[in-house]
Amino acid sequence: MPPRTTYRHGDLRRALLEAGTAMAREGGPEAVVLREATRRAGVAPNAAYRHFADRQALLAAVCAVAQTQVAIAMETEQSTLPPAADHAEAARARLRAIGVGYLRFAQSEPELFRTAFSVPLDMTDAAAPNRAGPSGLTPFQLLSSALDGLVEAGVLSRERRHGAEFLAWSAVHGLATLETQGPLRMLGDEFREAIGQRVLDMIENGL
């Protein structure tokens, strides 16, 4: 790739972020390297420091992009839902769509999915605007909203609603990890789809 000699304001940061995201898509968070990002962007290594202080800063920005993509997948799945017979059915369908979108993203973008939750190591950015989808909600907020919908529809009691995000997320994320990084990755698509649906059934029935 020939070196780029000029950038409009903001273009270099975007180019570095696009390069970092491409590296994450290829090899997960470990593949995100600032020097390689500058090489792909066609600039000298020192040029990156005006936009990212170090490799960790670039990785954090790539993680935000990845989580946004997760949110988009979840919202896209919800947008395909047919009209429901009543509020309870609609609320259940919205929650299930959240899980289906999450699993499908993990299967289609395994390394970007792995990157999405690599930093930070806690919940500090769970509601960060730069990790949100078109609705303005992050993946965690989308799950929370779907669970609130169950309460509003009279499907889930307020007592059982408390902390339900962590129960549902743990089950779906665990399956996604096993299917993309663990022994379940060797299973066929049809079987993995069936297992995913059963896990979602388990979550709904458990709640």
UniProtKB/TrEMBL annotation:
<keyword id="KW-0238">DNA-binding</keyword>
<dbReference type="Pfam" id="PF00440">
    <property type="entry name" value="TetR_N"/>
</dbReference>
<feature type="DNA-binding region" description="H-T-H motif">
    <location>
        <begin position="33"/>
        <end position="52"/>
    </location>
</feature>
<dbReference type="InterPro" id="IPR025996">
    <property type="entry name" value="MT1864/Rv1816-like_C"/>
</dbReference>
<dbReference type="InterPro" id="IPR001647">
    <property type="entry name" value="HTH_TetR"/>
</dbReference>
<dbReference type="GO" id="GO:0000976">
    <property type="term" value="F:transcription cis-regulatory region binding"/>
</dbReference>
<keyword id="KW-0805">Transcription regulation</keyword>
<keyword id="KW-0804">Transcription</keyword>
<dbReference type="InterPro" id="IPR036271">
    <property type="entry name" value="Tet_transcr_reg_TetR-rel_C_sf"/>
</dbReference>
<feature type="domain" description="HTH tetR-type">
    <location>
        <begin position="10"/>
        <end position="70"/>
    </location>
</feature>
<dbReference type="Pfam" id="PF13305">
    <property type="entry name" value="TetR_C_33"/>
</dbReference>
<dbReference type="GO" id="GO:0003700">
    <property type="term" value="F:DNA-binding transcription factor activity"/>
</dbReference>
<dbReference type="InterPro" id="IPR050109">
    <property type="entry name" value="HTH-type_TetR-like_transc_reg"/>
</dbReference>
<dbReference type="InterPro" id="IPR009057">
    <property type="entry name" value="Homeodomain-like_sf"/>
</dbReference>
<protein>
    <submittedName>
        <fullName>Regulatory protein, tetR family</fullName>
    </submittedName>
</protein>
